[in-house]
Amino acid sequence: MNPTHLSSIPADALITVAGTVGVGKSTLTAALAQRLGFKTSLEKVDHNPYLEKFYHDFERWSFHLQIYFLAERFKEQKAIFEAGGGFVQDRSIYEDTGIFAKMHADQGTMSAVDYETYSSLFDAMVLTPFFPHPDVLVYLEGSLPSILGRINERGREMEIQTEVTYWEKMHGRYAQWIDGFDACPVLRLNIDEYDVNDPASLDEILVKVGRKIEESRREKTGSNV
Ligand SMILES: Nc1ncnc2c1ncn2[C@@H]1O[C@H](COP(=O)(O)OP(=O)(O)O)[C@@H](O)[C@H]1O
Ligand SMILES: Nc1ncnc2c1ncn2[C@H]1C[C@H](O)[C@@H](COP(=O)(O)O)O1
Question: Which GO terms describe its molecular function (predicted)?
Answer without folding.
Answer: ATP binding; deoxynucleoside kinase activity
